[in-house]
Structure formats: C-alpha cells, structure tokens
Specification:
40% of the residues lie in helices and 20% in strands. By secondary structure, it is an alpha/beta fold. About 3% of the residues have low confidence. Bound molecules: adenosine-5'-triphosphate.
C-alpha cells in the first residue's frame, strides 16, 4: 500500500512547490487579485539590454477602468542611475513596479528600456533583466542554500556563497549548525525580517540583473539593521539602473533623482537638497520622518 501512495505523495510535493512559487510572486507585489493575463505579441523578440535606461512616458494605468491610479507619469532613469519614488500610501508607488515587471499592461503612454517598448518584447527576457528585492520575502520550505540558489537556475554552491557574502548573510549562515543545509520557512528555522531581506538580496545578486527594483519594506526593522541593509543595498545598486520604491525618506537621500507621487501624479521632482529647498510636500515629509526617527532612537537607546 505504501508503494501505491508514494507517487501521490510526490505529486503533493510538486503541487506544493508550484503553489509556493506562485505565492512568492504574489507576495512580491502584494497582489490581491489574479492579474489579467499579459500575453506576448506573436514572435516578440527578446529585450536587448544595452545599459538599462528606463523611461516612463506619460504612463496611465487603472486596475479598474472607473478608477485611474496613474494619471500620466513621466520620468527617465539613465543607464546605471538611481531614481527614488516617494509619496503617501496609495499614491501608486508599488503599481509602478508591477508595470515595469509587466504584471499589468499600461492603459496609456509607454514604458521603455533602452528605447524598446516593454510590450513589444518577450516577457521572459524582460523579467530576466529585472531583479526585485520585495517588501516581504516568502521563503520556500527548503534549505537556506536552496532559497538563495533559486535566484538563478543552475547556480553552483560557490556562487550561492559568493552571493550570500555580498548580501552580508554568509557569516550568519555559517554560524548555524547545519550551515547552508539548514531548513528554513514555515517548518524550519524562522528568520527575522532583516535576515529574510538579506536572502532576497542574495537571490538578486545571483540573478545579476541590469535593472533593480527595491520595494522597501514597510515593516519596521530596528534602525541598526536598517542601516546595515541600506549599506548592502547601496552596494548592489551601484552600476545598475535602480528604482527605489521608498516608504522611508532616509533611504533616498543619495538617489540621483527623487519623484514625489501623489494620487497618481508626479507633484515634485529633484535631488534631496533641491526638494528640501523647495519647501513642498517632500520637505514636509522629511521633517516629519526626522522627528519620528529621533523619537525611535531615544526609545531604542
Ligand atoms: P503604499 O505606500 O501603501 O504601499 P503605494 O503608493 O505603493 O502605497 P499602490 O500599492 O501602488 O500604492 O496602490 C495604489 C492604489 O491602487 C491604491 O488605491 C490601491 O488600493 C489600488 N490597488 C492596488 N492593487 C490593486 C489591485 N490589485 N486591484 C485594484 N486596486 C488596486
């Protein structure tokens, strides 16, 4: 009888793996509904990445036709540059990330990478070019090594370890009794928010994409962990086109350009210094967050 059940057991395992893969993708973007299917045009060529310049040209988008979310958003990130998007909750920041990854199709305007409309290229090639460090990483019920290796098919152990070093989690993994073979996830070792984020960073390093989307965690990490992670993120975004979806302004100070999104429109843009000088929404948000951060530091001390 046991013989009979083994294949069923395996099927169950495969099913769980697939399902968890989907959960991971959904969690990446906090998808509530299943997105409408985005299909490739017949014979769509692969994206050809030269340097990874990313442009939004008058991008419009609505999940529901009656409720426009993005109302004509334009910006350009030169190859290797960093753009930060800030703004109040619900402004449409994470929606920008979903559109770049083509989870949804824009309803107006266009998004280009090195001059190619992302609707005209194959999704597989588009997604290969983009790495995402999501807000909250869902781990597979498997070893921590597997969870990192998942960043790229066929990655060897030495590459996994190099990525873990880059994400500053190698030391932690080595300190575990079973090292890279330690099981994590729901049925294994529970990782802290900061550790999970480092796993996501290591995965992304392994993927080595020319374009990076950092969807900053809203969940509170303590200030020290946050600073340490920030240093790692700064290092991996060097030489890559990076878009930071920011919830805390402390992380965007060094961005080449900051755009302030409010109710689906860019209402301010410029460097940190220029935006402070303009004394607008950004300056106000900055003052408020500085005060909050000071209070947190006092609490932690
Ligand atoms: P936060 O800072 O809180 O993460 P955000 O600026 O990233 O907010 P988005 O997640 O882009 O905001 O959401 C913008 C708007 O789109 C919100 O009003 C939200 O309710 C709506 N929205 C998001 N996802 C969906 C969806 N799958 N279906 C319908 N509406 C959605």
């Amino acid at each position: 009888l046991a013989q009979l059940f083994r294949p069923l057991d395996m099927l169950g395992m495969v099913y769980r793996e697939i399902r968890q893969g989907l959960i991971d993708m959904e969690a990446m973007f906090k998808l509530v509904d299943t997105p409408p299917e985005v299909v490739d045009q017949a014979g769509a060529p692969d994206l050809h990445v030269a340097g990874g310049a990313l442009r939004f040209e008058d991008v419009r988008f609505a999940y529901d036709p009656d409720r426009p979310i993005l109302k004509g958003v334009s910006f350009a990130i030169p190859a290797g540059g960093t753009l930060a998007v800030v703004g109040p909750s619900g402004a449409g920041k994470s929606t920008l990330a979903r559109l770049i990854y083509r989870f949804y199709e824009v309803t107006g305007g266009r998004i280009t990478i090195d001059g190619q409309d992302i609707r005209a290229v194959s999704q597989a090639s588009l997604r290969r070019a983009i790495g995402i460090v999501p807000q909250d990483t869902v781990l597979f019920n498997d070893t921590i090594g597997y969870n990192i290796a998942y960043g790229r098919d066929g990655a060897g152990q030495d590459e996994v370890e190099a990525a873990a070093k880059g994400a500053a989690i190698d030391g932690f993994i080595r300190s575990l009794p079973q090292g890279y073979d330690t099981r994590v996830g729901e049925r294994g070792l529970k990782l802290s928010g900061g550790e999970k984020q480092r796993v996501a960073i290591a995965r992304t390093l392994l993927k080595n994409p020319p374009i990076l989307i950092l969807d900053e965690a809203t969940s509170a990490l303590d200030s020290r962990t946050e600073d340490e992670i920030q240093t790692t993120l700064d290092a991996i975004s060097e030489r890559r086109t990076t878009i930071i979806i920011a919830h805390r302004l402390s992380t965007v100070v060094h961005a080449d350009e900051i755009v302030v999104l409010d109710a689906g429109r860019v209402v301010e843009r410029g460097s940190h210094a220029a935006l402070l000088e303009a004394r607008g929404i950004y300056a106000e948000m900055w003052a408020r967050q500085q005060a909050e951060r000071a209070a947190e530091l006092v609490e932690e001390a």
